UniProtKB/TrEMBL annotation:
GO terms for biological process: protein import into peroxisome matrix; protein import into peroxisome membrane. InterPro entries: Pex26 (IPR010797). Pfam families: Pex26 (PF07163). This is Chromosome 19 SCAF14731, whole genome shotgun sequence. One of its GO terms (cellular component) is peroxisomal membrane. Signal peptide: none annotated. GO terms for molecular function: ATPase binding; protein-containing complex binding. It comes from Tetraodon nigroviridis.
């Protein structure tokens, strides 16, 4: 370990000039990576620069706060670059490669990883890594520890339905040290609400599927009736009756059977539109076209 309080003939007189030059180069690389990311939007070049900067930092055997800060900066930019390159699966392995002890990852890096994997719908990826990070006692003094705990609860445990682990986080030693009583109560209420929503969704799913299938069968029958009707009746003598029947059918579909807010309505609208086009061609097209559609 380098210690500048040592005597003048020790490492202090030898390491100071190279240290300043090395950090100047590191800062320049970090600035270049940020420019490649934000200004040039060259994400691959930004990631390559971050990798090179991290390699240079690894060769600097110095326990200095600036090393940790620059390392966190390179990792932050690297995560963003991988996300922009749609290589989000490589983010966590790459971060763990930079930090041999994953429990020493800076809080803002853990937060960024949780949010990233939550956004792509893969919260389970961060369950083990974030859980271990939170269980390390020395991390509880970190400024972003509480934020990590909140994100872990909201974006990992709740989506994965890990109720027991969520309750342990809220009511256990971690929750008692970072959450107030009101916050713990709010979190428990959120758990109850989420569980009730999942229960209601599981109950409504079969009924919704049955409703969609029933509507589909009714629509098929209605199509068959309409096609038979407009093919069999001569349009020259029953045109007025056909228009009345068509208007009544449309009103029935629009006001009684068709719910525009329901997702299954899109299927009805599409099929109804196709059916109306065929009816229109039958009623108003040339006689030989109508005759060619006859049975």
């Amino acid at each position: 370990m380098s210690n500048c309080s040592a005597p003048a003939h020790s490492l202090c007189s030898v390491c100071v000039p190279p240290l300043s030059s090395a950090f100047t180069q590191i800062f320049s690389m970090l600035d270049t990576a940020a420019e490649q990311m934000m200004v040039r939007t060259d994400f691959q070049a930004a990631f390559d620069t971050c990798n090179k900067g991290l390699e240079n930092l690894a060769g600097m055997e110095l326990e200095d706060n600036r090393c940790w800060e620059y390392k966190a900066g390179f990792c932050t930019l690297g995560i963003q670059a991988l996300a922009e390159l749609n290589q989000w699966r490589a983010v966590l392995p790459w971060v763990l490669q930079q930090y041999e002890n994953q429990q020493e990852i800076p809080p803002k890096i853990v937060q960024l990883c949780i949010l990233l994997y939550s956004k792509v719908g893969q919260p389970a990826v961060m369950q083990e890594a974030a859980g271990r990070w939170l269980r390390r006692p020395s991390n509880r003094s970190a400024p972003g520890f509480r934020t990590v705990a909140e994100l872990y609860l909201l974006h990992v445990l709740l989506p994965l339905r890990r109720r027991e682990e969520a309750e342990e986080l809220i009511l256990g030693e971690i929750g008692s040290s970072v959450f107030t009583e009101d916050q713990r109560q709010t979190a428990l209420e959120l758990l109850e609400e989420k569980e009730q929503q999942d229960l209601n969704s599981s109950r409504d799913a079969p009924a919704a599927a049955d409703g969609v299938s029933a509507r589909g069968a009714t629509l098929c029958k209605l199509e068959a009736v309409l096609r038979f009707f407009f093919r069999r009746l001569p349009s020259t003598r029953c045109f007025r009756f056909q228009r009345v029947f068509l208007a009544a059918t449309l009103l029935y579909l629009l006001f009684l059977r068709l719910d525009p807010a329901h997702p299954s309505s899109f299927m009805w609208i599409s099929k109804l539109f196709q059916l109306l086009k065929q009816v229109w061609r039958t009623l108003f097209g040339p006689y030989y076209q109508a005759a060619s559609r006859g049975p």
